[in-house]
Amino acid sequence: ASASRNFRTICSGLCRVLRFVVIVKVSLPIGLKTFITTGSVFQQQANAPWYFQVNGGKPFAFAGIWERWDKGDKPLESCAILTTTPNELMAPIHDRLPVILSPTDYDAWLDSTMNDPEKLTYLYEPFPASEMSKYRVSAYVNKVGNKGKACMEPLTQ
User: What is the pTM of this model?
Assistant: First the structure.
C-alpha cells in the first residue's frame, strides 16, 4: 500500500509523460553500503557484494523518470531509476529494489498518452522474488575500472 501511494505521488507529475526504461542485457552486481576490508576471510565474505539476476538471463528493464529544467543559461536534464519496496530476495540486504519491468510491460510504461497513475501502479509492485536469484561476488566488482565476467563470478571460499 505504501509503495503504491508513493508511486501515485510521483506519477501525479513526472510519470504523466517523462518516462524511460533502462534495458539490462545482463544482471548487475549490487554491493552493500559497507565492506569489511580487514579480518577473517569469513568476515570479508559476509560483507561481499551480491549479484542479482532475473532467472534465465532474460532481458529486463528498470523504470525511470526524467525531466528537463530550462532555467539559467544551460538546460539541465536529470533522471532517476524508480525504486519500490524490496521483494523477499532483496529485503535481507537492502530496503529498496529498483522497479523492474518485464518486456511485456515496456509499452505500458512508455505510453505517453497513459496519464492515469492508477493504471500504472501494478508496474510498481516488487518484481517477484521467485523470478530472480542472487549470489555473492568478489569485491573486485567495487572498482569502477574493473569490467567483464570477473565482476560476475561467484565468490569462492
Answer: 0.75
